[in-house]
Amino acid sequence: MFDLERRAKFELENIDISDEGLRNLEANVVAARTEAASLANQLSAIRSEGATALASAVTEELHGLAMAGASLLVTVVNTGDLGLHGQDEISINLSAYPGAAPRPLGKGASGGELSRIMLAIEVVLAKGKTTPTFVFDEVDAGVGGAAAIEVGKRLARLSKQTQVIVVTHLAQVAAFADNHLRVEKASDSTFTATSVRRVEGEERVAELARMLSGLGDSENARTHAAELVELSKTL
C-alpha cells in the first residue's frame, strides 16, 4: 500500500503540464492513432482475403452435403470505428439456392443446414486446429442416401485431425466410425436405464442393417451394411 502511494505521488509530481509537455502528449496520441489505423487497415485486408478463401472452400464442401446449390458468403465491412478488435464488422450469410438473396445464418438456414455448415467449416479449418474433440448431434438431419455417405466421409476426414463424436441415426454415417457405440434403453413399470455398448464385427454389420431397414436379419440390408463398412475402409 505504501509502495503504491509512493509511486502515485512520484508520478503526480513528474507530470509535465507545460505547453511543450502537452504538445508532446498530443503528438504521441496522433502517432499512436496513425499507427493503430495502419494496423487496422492491414488487418482488414487480411480478413477480406481470408473471408473470400473461407467462403469458397466451405461452399465447395457444402455441395457434397446435400446443399448443392448453396453458397456461403463471408463479408467484411469497414465500419470506420476503430476498437479493440479492429474496425470491421464481419457477417456470415447463406444463399440457400442459386439466385437466392444471402441471409444471416440464423435466419436463412434450418437446423440441419446449420449443422452441415458447421461441419463444412470444421473440415476446411481442421488443419492447424487444436480443439481436442468435436461433438456433432444429428449433423445428418434431413439427408439420406448418397448425401449421407458424403457426410460420413467428411466426418471421417475430420477425424484424421482430431477426435470426433457423432450422434446419428443413419447407417451411412455410422459406417465410417472407427468405434461404433450403440445407446440402449431398458425399462419396466418403475425405472428406465440407459446403457452404451460397443458393437464390432458381425454384430456391427447387423446393427447397421437394422439402422438401414429396421430389420437386423434382412439379408439385403446386411449386404448393404457390409458394403458400407468396406466403403469406409477405402478412405
Quick take:
GO terms for molecular function: ATP binding. This protein has 235 residues and is an alpha+beta fold.
Describe the structure in your own words.
It contains eight helices and seven strands. The strands form three sheets. Strands 1-2-3 form a three-stranded antiparallel β-sheet. A two-stranded parallel ribbon has the order 4-5. The chain has 235 residues and is an alpha+beta fold. The protein is 51% helix and 22% strand. The model has no long low-confidence stretch (mean pLDDT 88). The longest helix has 44 residues, at 19-62. It folds into two domains: 1-109, no CATH class; 110-235, P-loop containing nucleotide triphosphate hydrolases (Rossmann fold), CATH 3.40.50. A hairpin with a 4-residue loop joins strand 6 and strand 7. It has helices spanning 2-13, 19-62, 105-108, 111-125, 145-159, 171-174, 201-213, 219-232, and strands at 71-83, 86-95, 103-104, 133-137, 163-167, 180-187, 192-199. Helix 2 packs across helix 4 and helix 7 packs across helix 8 (219-232). GO terms for molecular function: ATP binding. Pfam families: SMC_N. It comes from freshwater metagenome. One of its GO terms (biological process) is DNA recombination. This is DNA repair protein RecN.
Oligomeric state of shown chains:
single chain
Q: Shape from CA axes?
A: elongated
Helix content: 40-55%
Helix segment count? Answer: 8
The helix/strand order is HHEEEHHEHEHEEHH
Alpha-carbon distance between the termini? 65 Å
CATH class of the largest domain: Alpha Beta
User: Total strand count, please?
Assistant: 7
Q: Could you list the spans in which at least 5 consecutive residues all have pLDDT below 50?
A: none
At the third CATH level, what is the topology name of the largest domain? Rossmann fold
Under the CATH scheme, which architecture of the largest domain would be assigned?
Answer: 3-Layer(aba) Sandwich
- Overall structural domain count: 2
Order of the strands making up the biggest sheet: 1-2-3
- The CATH superfamily of the largest domain is P-loop containing nucleotide triphosphate hydrolases
| Radius of gyration over all CA atoms, rounded | 28 Å
Mean pLDDT: 88
- Approximately how much beta-strand content do the residues carry? 15-25%
Structural class of the secondary structure composition? alpha+beta
Keywords: ATP-binding, DNA damage, DNA repair, Nucleotide-binding
Function: May be involved in recombinational repair of damaged DNA.
Protein name: DNA repair protein RecN
GO molecular function: ATP binding
